[in-house]
């Protein structure tokens, strides 16, 4: 068996699957000539965002406070402070896409709040990756059998199998520009079309084959 002919192949699989998660960011900002007033406004606006997110808790899988920034605005010359700025961002991960558009618009209605996203993705442990890996192995075996058949031989055993590249990380695909603040009144309806996510897998395999029939 050690001297048996060997065929080396690469098996690949590519799938497009429905996203499982949607992520967006919501940022509250404030500006005032007085530092304490700027901070107070920022805290109030961040609290209003939290209230809205609390009300949408069933659709939210995860929320994380990101960067908090407070900085002075100075004149072009010198260090004289003319105003203070502040911002705080929250990243929200949603699993219920039917509630996503309404939630983003409700947040965008808030004073001095910016909403950006969504970015679609597949869970790291999604069955789609397992299915892609199985398909890549099946592709490698099919190719090996085809090469062996062309030589008048058959595949006899697997010598080695390796992961040529890890299954693609969930890709984040932005659906459009950020949603700015909206005028007062009832929020308009917004339907979002989830973007299919690519899932890939590739393997490299070596198989022994029976003695080729040449000539």
UniProtKB/TrEMBL annotation:
<protein>
    <submittedName>
        <fullName>SIMPL domain-containing protein</fullName>
    </submittedName>
</protein>
<dbReference type="Pfam" id="PF04402">
    <property type="entry name" value="SIMPL"/>
</dbReference>
<dbReference type="InterPro" id="IPR007497">
    <property type="entry name" value="SIMPL/DUF541"/>
</dbReference>
<dbReference type="InterPro" id="IPR052022">
    <property type="entry name" value="26kDa_periplasmic_antigen"/>
</dbReference>
<dbReference type="GO" id="GO:0006974">
    <property type="term" value="P:DNA damage response"/>
</dbReference>
